[in-house]
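hi! just following up on the protien thing from before. the input was this:
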Amino acid sequence: QVQLVESGGGLVQAGGSLRLSCAASASIFSISAMGWYRQAPGKQRELVATSTTGGSTNYADSVKARFTISRDNAKNTVYLQMNSLKPEDTAVYYCNARRVVGLSTYDYWGQGTQVTVSS
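and the predicted 3d structure came back as:
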């Protein structure tokens, strides 16, 4: 079991920045990948960014060049630096940890943190 606690959401004006943090209860070395997803009202949850233990990262096209995912392995924490925020970035942001054990995949989710971008 992996528990995830997010922080750092809030209200910001368009063009501003926020940094989200996700602290994991287990060593993130034991987790295959960690990422951020978001869900806006009336929409499906979508991938924002992921980071694997191998060091590779992946971003949604809509956030490339604006958002950066990073990890501090010593603190078991993953961050999402969000710059040049737009109103369409408004959503609840969820941290995800994915653990692969053999042929089985286990997904763990945080409680979510609200990000609101005003125009």
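Residues 70 and 90 are 21 Å apart (CA to CA).
The chain has no helices and eleven strands.
cheers
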